[in-house]
Amino acid sequence: RQRYTGLIERYRDLLPVHDDTRLISLGEGNTPLIRLNNIPRELGVDVDIYVKYEGLNPTGSFKDRGMTMAVTKAVEAGSRAIICASTGNTSASAAAYAARAGITAFVLIPEGKIAMGKLAQAMVEGAVVIQIAGNFDDGMRLVRQVAENAPVTIVNSINPYRLQGQKTAAFEIVEELGRAPDFHYLPVGNAGNITAHWIGYSEYSSGDGHSVTAACNYCEGHCRFAGAVVGSRPVMVGYQASGAAPFLRGHMVDDPDTVATAIRIGHPQSWNQAWKVREESGGWFDECEDDEILATQKLLAEKEGIFCEPASAISLAGAIRDIKSGKIEPNSSVVCTLTGHGLKDPDTAVKQSTGPMIKIAAELDAVKQAILDNIS
Ligand code: F0G
């Protein structure tokens, strides 16, 4: 059995790399799929809800899955610099993989609109951080224009290698469950990730099981893919924040706004692809208000001990809503992707925490009293 060295090595035969490609990896992927216990019980519903905790990737978000591929291919092609526009997580990931590769990362971020943890990452990892007086969509437009005139490789999800890396999340889920789930919920911003998951599920389901098993170098063919049921794909459901919901409006939105800054996007880059995913999977798009997003972030942390960033909580918020309304039948299996770690955005988390913060003298009696007053 090999040591785990990242998703390219693990799914090598299903990814566009050569035997002699130098892999740029930080051990990304292989994230836990956690079955929720307390939330379904309290809701009184008979649905298996799993969360795929992508916040446990090396830089704290799913972007690392795509970035390991994008930077590996950029380096293979001789590129000395990468560039992206970002609401924060892509920039943190690009900065880390560029550092690992020994190349330069340029990141364009909307001034004042990215969470503190993400900014800290890009800065400490040595990226050239360019704050623009505009939003993500402005940044994306500029990155597309500048890449035509300068020797830099774009590592936003319009880079096709990003989606190739991100499709591996679907492989891991199938491997873990022994089949595809009935429903898969994702937050949608640019719609790259929902597209990537659909590619992954589709490749898996069109395989005969053997092709997938043989491709798994990590376990030499002994992983749980071996007995997996092929041929099924989940219904894909994409949720957007109400203030940044072009898929709900049916057209691009010029002034997107939401507390979930990661998905503060009005001009999704994978517009056509995401509509196709919806159609092919029989899925739907829906939206959540900011207060529902934050309430779900807190619910997940308080009831299950899982801390994700606000944008990520929208997948679970949507699933809970659709379970309550009966859109999801009892006995279904649902996977919600938690795209980023809660520590990315400590300010929002602290602001909405109402738990007791007790200040006392540094004395035994005072501590005892505090315990007696607060024990549940
Ligand atoms: N969740 C988080 C935590 C994200 O950072 C993003 C996108 C998404 C969901 C949406 O994924 O764009 O593939 O639909 N963040 C990008 C960034 C835009 O710059 O970090 P998508």
Automatic annotation (TrEMBL):
Catalytic activity from the UniProt record: O-phospho-L-homoserine + H2O = L-threonine + phosphate
Pathway: Amino-acid biosynthesis; L-threonine biosynthesis; L-threonine from L-aspartate: step 5/5
UniProt key word Plastid: no
Gene Ontology molecular function: any one: pyridoxal phosphate binding
Tryptophan synthase beta chain-like PALP domain: residues covered: 24-340
Assigned protein family: Belongs to the threonine synthase family.
Protein name: Threonine synthase
UniProt keyword Acetylation present: no
